[in-house]
Amino acid sequence: MFFTDKTKLDSPLCWQKQFRRLLPFLLSIIFTLAVSSQSISSAPKSTEILWDTYGIPHIYGSNAQGAFKAFGWAQTQSHANLLLRLYGQARGKAAEYWGEEYIDSDKWVLTMGVPKRAIAWYKAQNPAFRSYIDAFADGINAYAKEHRNLIDDEVEVVLPVKPEDVLSHLQRLLLFTFVVNQGSVAQVSQHQSPAASNGWAIAPKRSASGKAMLLANPHLPWGDLLWYEAQITAPGIDAYGSTLVGIPVLAIAFNDNLGWTHTVNTHDGWDAYELKLQNNGYLFDGKVRPFETASFPLKVKQKNGSLREQIFTVKSSVHGPVVSKKDSTLALRVVGQDSSGVLAQWWDMARAKNLNQFQKVLQRLQLSMFTVMYADREGHIMHLFNGQVPVRQQGDFIYWQGIIPGDTSKTLWTKNHPYQDLPKVIDPASGWLQNANDPPWTTTSPLAIKANDYPPYMAPRGPMYFRAQSSARMLAEDESISFDEMVAYKHSTRMELAERILDELIGAAQQQQDELTRRAAHVLAAWDRKADADSRGAVLFSFWVDAIDFDTVFKTPWNEKSPFKTPDGLADPQSAVKALADAAAKVEKAYKKLDIAWGDVFRLRSGNLDLPANGGDGDRGIFRVVNYAPTGDGRFQAAGGDSYVAAVEFSQPVKALALIGYGNSSQPNSPHVSDQLPLFARQQLRPVWRTRKEITAHLEERKAF
């Protein structure tokens, strides 16, 4: 349209008329551009990886296969040595590749039938998803072929990676590390996972912005179980999050509409059955049954490079594979062994657009355990006690933690509870949900899930440990939580335990005559009750905690009617004071003073970095969990705890911050080994870049396929 009359053109009335005529036309152009932009973002013409300056891969796949291949490439570029070693272990051939120290690992993998089951799982995938797993393996092999010189010689023996290796690793990790592991079998009465976590979901009614918020904060050892942060964009998906190295889909993630995180829940997905042996078999319902047996060649690499071969035989009963203990023969029964759709479920969780779609994916129950903590753009929040929970005919949670009689079918479970049976709460009246590895009953206050409504074996009835209490207290006490406040709370090093007993301990210590105990009381009285780097008194208190017995130290035990305020008080103040004197003597001998700063003793070390640490063990009630290992010089080095952290607000656009404290790479000479550790030390998160404009403004490398 052209204007030729300047007078008419300059007329305000004319402008208004012309604008009204042009408005529909302009809106149609804007809409077309928006749709075009959206489609370009979700379906690029070629597959590429844009690496940002923190080593986060932003994957743009022209199709799903392209995205999976690029993700395999990216993980190998960042973690090749670790990934190949994990896959070698999952094959049950680690001793053959790397020697004697891996024999127990191989025996565990073979006993649990991992490699054989991986083949069955691969065949059970639908053709489309099978092609995705193929593509992920292709990406690993393509990177390895092009960059062989960047991979350690000793792990190259694992190449080429096969699609079945991906599923073997998934099983070894999910079923035979998290659900059950060698350590938990050795201590049958302690069904413990190697991991913990914090998770929060905050509804609009408790959010300062009026938007739902999510906090993802898994805790894992800083060794083999490393998180890997990434963004994956392809037709039908634009998700950002993290997964464990070697897993081809995001396990914790968010998109523009929703997000979720996981914590290790109080889930019992395995049992140890004691067998009564008779006539080379075992008794079951009054009859002798023969064992099923399978034999495997187990090769062990010797120091001179030769291989020593032995035959390893696995026996199985109707319950499952047999493991021998000193005084008994046990058979293990483990959930999840028929759940070949775990990866597809995680993938579809990341593609969901609302709560209804998300729940339909969850209802598949392919994921054998883990709490699901959820929040979305529409303001919904949810806590699901997720997992495959066996339907048991008798007993409570404590009963099933012990050794179960294996001579009767009355104790043999064969079915799992369906989705509708699992404890869950959606949009509680409180407006907040939390889980810090406590049972589902204490996810919010007032209590929204009643333990009496579920079988007594579903989850334990308590106690609620101090980290979970600290988690709940922070949420309950703030009726309008801003995004920045949520991030600050996440880094809280306050010791909930100290709030319960410190005043009483100080009072009792101040009444003592000996000078050391009185000085210890003075240090504790001046302490800020935190484990920040400059906190003085935290080391002394921590040494004292190591010397006490949690089962007997409290005057008032934990009570489920007062879950956030018990246990409380000192049962025996004099014994507590004696333990304090002993702790003070140890601290003064080791560090020459009682009020040494926490960060002088507890360190963050990686490469050339040696930084003062903050945070500590969750049993002290510290929400910012950092686990330490002694270094031999009287100091302690961070070895686990906080790993991947993501804080998300479902505003428009989504607001997000994240961090992987140990960095997004473990490859030697990578700039992204520990480049985020200084932020970790300063209790800071880094921005999440999700748009192409943001990513290209912080671009380090581009890889096109």
UniProtKB/TrEMBL annotation:
<keyword id="KW-0479">Metal-binding</keyword>
<dbReference type="Pfam" id="PF01804">
    <property type="entry name" value="Penicil_amidase"/>
</dbReference>
<dbReference type="InterPro" id="IPR029055">
    <property type="entry name" value="Ntn_hydrolases_N"/>
</dbReference>
<feature type="binding site">
    <location>
        <position position="268"/>
    </location>
    <ligand>
        <name>Ca(2+)</name>
    </ligand>
</feature>
<dbReference type="GO" id="GO:0046872">
    <property type="term" value="F:metal ion binding"/>
</dbReference>
<dbReference type="InterPro" id="IPR043146">
    <property type="entry name" value="Penicillin_amidase_N_B-knob"/>
</dbReference>
<dbReference type="InterPro" id="IPR043147">
    <property type="entry name" value="Penicillin_amidase_A-knob"/>
</dbReference>
<keyword id="KW-0106">Calcium</keyword>
<dbReference type="GO" id="GO:0017000">
    <property type="term" value="P:antibiotic biosynthetic process"/>
</dbReference>
<protein>
    <submittedName>
        <fullName>7-beta-(4-carbaxybutanamido)cephalosporanic acid acylase</fullName>
    </submittedName>
</protein>
<keyword id="KW-0865">Zymogen</keyword>
<feature type="binding site">
    <location>
        <position position="271"/>
    </location>
    <ligand>
        <name>Ca(2+)</name>
    </ligand>
</feature>
<keyword id="KW-0378">Hydrolase</keyword>
<feature type="active site" description="Nucleophile">
    <location>
        <position position="197"/>
    </location>
</feature>
<dbReference type="InterPro" id="IPR014395">
    <property type="entry name" value="Pen/GL7ACA/AHL_acylase"/>
</dbReference>
<dbReference type="InterPro" id="IPR002692">
    <property type="entry name" value="S45"/>
</dbReference>
<dbReference type="InterPro" id="IPR023343">
    <property type="entry name" value="Penicillin_amidase_dom1"/>
</dbReference>
<dbReference type="GO" id="GO:0016811">
    <property type="term" value="F:hydrolase activity, acting on carbon-nitrogen (but not peptide) bonds, in linear amides"/>
</dbReference>
<comment type="similarity">
    <text>Belongs to the peptidase S45 family.</text>
</comment>
<keyword id="KW-0732">Signal</keyword>
